[in-house]
Structures are given as structure tokens and as C-alpha cells.
Amino acid sequence: MLENQMGGTPMGNNLLQMARNGQSDDIEKFARNLFESRGLNFDKEFNSFKSQMGFK
Questions:
Q1: What pLDDT is stored for residue 7 in this prediction?
Q2: Which residues have CB under 8 Å from 2's CB, separation 6+?
Q3: Per-residue pLDDT, 55
Q4: Is the distance from CB of 30 to CB of 24 less than 8 angstroms?
Q5: Quick one: pLDDT band at residue 4, thresholds 50, 70, 90?
Q6: 12: Cβ–Cβ under 8 A, 6 or more apart, which residues?
Q7: HEC secondary structure over 1-56
Q8: Can you say whether residue 41 is alpha, beta or left, with left for phi > 0 and alpha for psi between -120 and 50 degrees?
Q9: Which of 2, 18, 28, 31 could, after both became Cys, cross-link 23 (CB 3.0–4.6 A)?
Q10: pLDDT band for position 52 (50/70/90)?
């Protein structure tokens, strides 16, 4: 399902390849850069996400 939504774009293909290769540090770096470029705080938003999902 995720491949259908993200595949076909250079960014999506790169992220999927990183996920397949277990490059979680690179995925996190990408997410942090994306959030920063949009004026968002990654740590704050990720903690909010985890809270909504029931993770601590």
C-alpha cells in the first residue's frame, strides 16, 4: 500500500529504498529536514504522534 502511494516519484522511491535497506537514520534525517523546511519542530510533532498512537 505504501509503495503504491509513494512510488513513482524520485523522493518516494528514495525513501522506499532507504526503508528496504534499513537506513532508519537516513529516513530520520530526511524527516527532520522536511519538518525544518516547513517551520515545524520534528521532536515536538513526533512526540505528539507517538502520544496519539498510544506509544510513550
A1: 67
A2: 16
A3: 87
A4: no
A5: confident
A6: 5, 6
A7: CHHHHHCCCHHHHHHHHHHHCCCHHHHHHHHHHHHHHCCCCHHHHHHHHHHHHCCC
A8: beta
A9: 18
A10: very high
